[in-house]
User: Which sequence fits this backbone?
């Protein structure tokens, strides 16, 4: 189940739907990235949803991978938010309550 567009608009403080197609695209890409990073299907776990919101906001506000003002390709915190959920090479996955 994808992250609702209403939650994404609220996170971005948008009061219009003019960019919904773009936001939906960013959301799909962010959910795929989270699933690939964690090694698990996207599940709308609260940490996964937070990471998607962060990635969508970053993509929406920075249309290029990097800029001279912000030389980081991912917003700070995405790896930190998802690291407890990431399936490790050993197969160990930290237990996190939703």
Assistant:
């Amino acid at each position: 189940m994808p992250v609702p567009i209403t939650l994404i608009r609220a996170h971005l403080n948008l009061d219009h739907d003019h960019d919904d197609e773009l936001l939906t695209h960013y959301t799909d890409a962010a959910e795929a990235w989270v699933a690939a990073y964690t090694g698990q299907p996207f599940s709308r776990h609260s940490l996964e949803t937070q990471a998607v919101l962060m990635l969508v906001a970053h993509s929406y506000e920075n249309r290029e991978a990097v800029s001279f003002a912000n030389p980081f390709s991912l917003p700070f915190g995405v790896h930190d938010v998802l690291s407890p959920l990431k399936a490790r090479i050993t197969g160990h996955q930290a237990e996190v309550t939703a």
